[in-house]
């Protein structure tokens, strides 16, 4: 829900990963970085994946 605060639980690696995935800006940055890395390592399959995401995507509003 908008405006809802999510707090990561646990300790160590679990808490760090929880902090990363509870922040939409952080998740977006990591996903974008992964896609750029994928375009560098395997451009063909990554472009197909991006085409599927672009075709199946829909606006959130």
Folded structure, characterized:
It is a single chain. The chain is mainly α. The protein has a domain at 23-56. 67% of the residues lie in helices and 0% in strands. Helix 2 (24-41) crosses helix 3. The two termini are 14 Å apart. The mean pLDDT is 84.
Structural class: mainly alpha
Q: Give unreliable regions as ranges.
A: none
Find the count of extended strands (DSSP E, 2+ residues). 0
Which band does the percent of strand residues land in?
under 5%
Give the helix proportion (percent range): 55-70%
What is the terminal separation in angstroms? 14 Å
Count the helices. How many? 3
The major sheet is characterized as: none
Mean pLDDT comes to 84
Gross geometry: flat
Query: From the alpha-carbon coordinates, what is the Rg to the nearest angstrom?
Result: 15 Å
Following the backbone from N to C, one meets helices and strands in this order, namely HHH
List the helices and strands and how they pair.
Elements: H1 13-21, H2 24-41, H3 43-56
Summarize the structure.
This protein has three helices and no strands. With 61 residues, it is mostly helical.
Q: Could you list some keywords that capture this structure?
A:
61 residues, mainly alpha, flat
């Amino acid at each position: 829900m908008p405006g809802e605060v999510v707090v990561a639980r646990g300790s160590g690696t679990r808490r760090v990963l929880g902090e990363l995935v509870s922040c939409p800006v952080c998740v977006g940055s990591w996903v974008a970085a992964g896609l750029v890395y994928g375009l560098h390592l395997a451009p063909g399959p990554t472009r197909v994946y991006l085409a599927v995401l672009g075709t199946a995507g829909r606006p959130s509003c």
